[in-house]
Amino acid sequence: MQHKIRLETLGPQGPAMALAIEACVHCGFCLPACPTYRELGEEMDSPRGRIFLMKSALEGELTVDETLPYIDRCLGCLGCVTACPSGVRYGDLITSYRAHVEPRRKRPAMHRVRRALIRETLTDPDRFRAAARLGRLSRPFARLAPADLRPMLALVPATLPAAQPLPVVIPAEGTRRARVAMIAGCVQQALAPEINAATLRVLAKNGVEVLIPQGQGCCGALLMHQGEQERARAQARVILRVFPRDVDAVITNAAGCGSALHEYPLLFADQPEEEDAQRLAALAMDASVLLAKLGLIPPPALERPMKVAYHDACHLAHAQGVTAEPRQLLRAVPGLTLVEINEGEICCGSAGTYNIEQPEIAGRLGERKAVNIARTGAEAVIAGNIGCMVQIRTHLQALGGPLPVYHTMELLDRAYSRR
Questions:
Q1: Domain limit, last residue, from 293, 311, 341
Q2: How many CB atoms lie within 10 A of CB 300?
Q3: CA-based radius of gyration for the chain
Q4: How far is the C-alpha of 326 from the C-alpha of 336, rounded, in Å?
Q5: How many domains in the chain?
Q6: Which of 45, 42, 3, 43 is nearest to 23 (CA)?
Q7: Structural domain span for residue 219
Q8: Which of 64, 86, 104 is the last residue of a domain?
Q9: Other CB atoms closer than 10 Å to residue 345's CB: what's the count?
């Protein structure tokens, strides 16, 4: 292998970074698939441009600081991975590069404050609820807040639903067809606990026994994609410790969590937990994939016909390659008509914490997504990720044409209960 990148300086992720860089032939197929290239029209804000920048920095031809504005503007949506004919593992590269440069960069004070707030609140439902209450009290003074913190205040929900404690075991209804363990999620538990409740009811209805390991905490997704590698590992080690392996699958119902579990082998490369991470990643799957594999028990017809638009969450469609299964499940609901969204493969702008850290670009992408959804004439929107749901709901409301936004499992649950 011929390259000038000094792998010994990059740690265990170095080979994965070098392979991704060398696989890129700069063909340009990634350009129309990249949201920032579409919005900004700059070569360095495209995947192949960023690959060039990262390669140059790793070879010492550019400083890390010269690459950061373009790297920071990457959503990490991985639309480029789906479009790439050469199989470039861009996700391995961007995640590893961010982990490599984070200890070497100097962030302004308010950037550090913002990241600390993200780290301490979004990864814990109880702290998130407390922070949301404080944020609502601070809203009248939002104009006085530092500019870096205003996007966070703007996203504080007006209300939060009551907490719904999760049981340890949810038995299957009828004959047991599978036994799984489920990631409970972080912000989703605070913003929309009904998603987990609906997921558990749908799985039970389909003969799936669900275990919810206690003390699991955050899976590490947010910190992993922010370059906070050691903190992400600490969170992921808890998941590795408390989740059983004698199950048929480890289930997620949030695209970001599912994607993170599949990245554990890279996160733990050359670590003592590497084999354990590989075993967990092999078990990980979205709830929609499990139900499609088992064969959905047909729900009754909806009380009235409904036309819905399905939104592909990036970390479900591009990172995990899951596009057919949610559609298959939705099409099995009598009375439901599924319509596609123009530019459906393009990110909505949520992308973890992107709408906090890059609010202008995220806002443009959110508006673009909302306009395309409104043009479908759908009566509701379905998605498989809480971040996408919040972003889409916000921008549909801003258009003045709010639509209900449901998780895939919520819609199936409504069908089974004939709501």
A1: 293
A2: 12
A3: 21
A4: 13
A5: 4
A6: 3
A7: 169-293
A8: 104
A9: 17
Kindly state whether residue 367 falls inside one of the protein's structural domains: yes
Assess whether 194 and 173 both reside in one domain: yes
Torsion of CA 15, 16, 17, 20, to 10 degrees: 120
pLDDT in tens, 250-290: 999 999 999 999 999 999 998 999 999 999 999 999 999 99
Sheet holding 208-211, edge to edge: 169-170, 208-211, 178-182, 249-252, 284-286
> Would you place residue 1 in the very low, low, confident or very high pLDDT band (cuts 50, 70, 90)?
very low
Residues 214 and 132 in one domain: no
Residues 329 and 366 occupy one common structural domain: yes
- The residues that bridge with 209 in the sheet, in sequence order, are 179
Percent with pLDDT over 90 in the chain = 71
Nearest to 25 by CA among 85, 96, 77, 67: 85
User: What pLDDT, on a 0 to 100 scale, did the predictor assign at position 261?
Assistant: 96
Is residue 177 included in any domain, yes or no?
A: yes
367 neighbors 395 (Cβ within 8 angstroms): yes
Q: pLDDT tens, 187-220?
A: 888 889 999 999 999 999 999 999 999 999 899 9
Task: Copy the structure tokens of residue 135.
Answer: 């944020």
Contacts 24+ apart (CB under 8 A), 49-57: 50/74, 50/94, 51/20, 51/21, 51/24, 51/26, 51/88, 51/90, 51/93, 52/26, 54/17, 54/21, 54/93, 54/94, 54/97, 55/5, 55/21, 57/101
